[in-house]
Write the structure tokens for this entry.
Amino acid sequence: MKTVSSLLDPSWQERYRRISNLNIRSSIYDVTNQCNLRCRGCFFFSSNEHRAAREEMDLQKWETFIDREKGRGVNLAILIGGEPTLYLDRVEAFYKRLPTYCATNGLIKIPRDRFPEMMVGISLWGSAEDEKVLRGRDTFALSSKQYAGDPYTYYLYTITPRQVGKIEPVIKRIAEVGLKVHFQLLSNDEHVDGFSWEAVELDALGREMDEMLERYPRTVISSKYYHQIITTGKMMGRPFGWNECPSVTESLDDREPPPRRLIHFIRWASDLKTVHRCCTSATRDCSTCKDGAAHMSWVMVNKREHIRTTEDLQNWIEVYEMFAKLYRFIPW
Ligand code: SF4
Ligand code: SF4
């Protein structure tokens, strides 16, 4: 029988040991239904999730709710929205109680005196031109000034088909302002013309992301195995999709047979009562979903399948490390 120690040399065993005790239990929270942008292709607005529930305005209720979440075993709060920075008191309620990650479009600066070590992920949708088409403005121009050199901030770069062959200038700009970057791929939820993926583009993008990781190892937080999984949508010959997705809200998960999944994962709406189907849009077609976190988690929950060859297990470790870095469980 293959075992972890039979497949790994001492240095990889040490890396394995470092992550295997983390026991990450995440859930996702819509901090607000409002946003100061309206990006074309935003899963939140395109699926009307901003209308799914009335936002809870009472801060005390948020605090009580977060305490309950902590009691449920959550040890990573992933804050999304809408735009969480519109309600920093709610963000602070999480940050004071739980390891917290905050997604933002970067237009409002998160004050570091109030949130000294909170991991911040700034959404970026490509070049200035693409951002203007999809988001109505070049957000990088402002967010890069606000966060330059910040040790706990990275760009979550959503790559679109139009970006294939052109991602290096974006990485360079990020490297120049002393920040990190992680890749994910656009799922074209609003069917914007020219922004849906063709197989040939995904193939080219996989190679391009590998090259970027080699050329900018201190800036790009990623792994080649992740690139392979997200561009092919396959792991160990199995296709990603509803039957495999690990990021489905536990209370809504009636799949048979039950797949490996994130334990106790819930995505909460901002009324603190309603839950959404999964980590992304409830109306998205799972067969074309390119959500990066769901693909990463898919690898992570399938550890046993990777205890097969040294390369498989090392791939698994690298994806787990990447996740742990992105949510500040281990340093960059
Ligand atoms: S900034 Fe984020 S939440 Fe706001 S519209 Fe754009 S993608 Fe949606
Ligand atoms: S849309 Fe994506 S994240 Fe949501 S259930 Fe489907 S595959 Fe999973």
Observations:
- The mean pLDDT is 95.
